[in-house]
Specification:
The protein is of the alpha+beta class and 109 residues long. It has 5 helices and 4 strands, in the order H-H-E-E-E-H-E-H-H. A 4-stranded mixed beta sheet has the order 3-2-1-4. The radius of gyration is 17 Å and the shape is globular.
Length: 109
């Protein structure tokens, strides 16, 4: 959006990212159903990406998908009976970083 559009009060067009799709929600539901101790961490919308949620299992395995906003994240967490947190407030659990470190693809030299 250009400067003149902002001055005229036109709404923002959105982000450069695509919106969430049914496949995103299906993936999140399957992740929760197949793992134990899952928690959700909502990441805010930015100029580049839509709102996302990171699901972290008890062992630290995690996945990230787009969602249609914080309200959708709260509704999803209620429907799936998992706790949900604001990633900007709580940060991410150490187990997520540990899992990522242990599951990096091998580097070739």
């Amino acid at each position: 959006m250009g400067l003149f559009d902002r001055l005229r009060g036109r709404p923002r067009r959105g982000t450069l990212d695509r919106g969430s799709q049914r496949a995103d929600l299906s993936h999140l539901e399957a992740f929760v159903a197949s793992r134990r101790g899952v928690e959700g961490y909502v990441e805010p919308r930015t100029a580049v990406t839509e709102t996302t949620i990171v699901l972290v299992a008890a062992d630290g395995e995690w996945t990230r998908r787009r969602i249609d906003g914080p309200d959708t994240a709260r509704r999803l967490s209620r429907d799936l009976a998992i706790p949900v947190y604001d990633a900007q407030v709580t940060g991410y659990p150490q187990r997520m970083r540990d899992w990522s470190k242990d599951h990096r693809p091998p580097t070739t030299r």
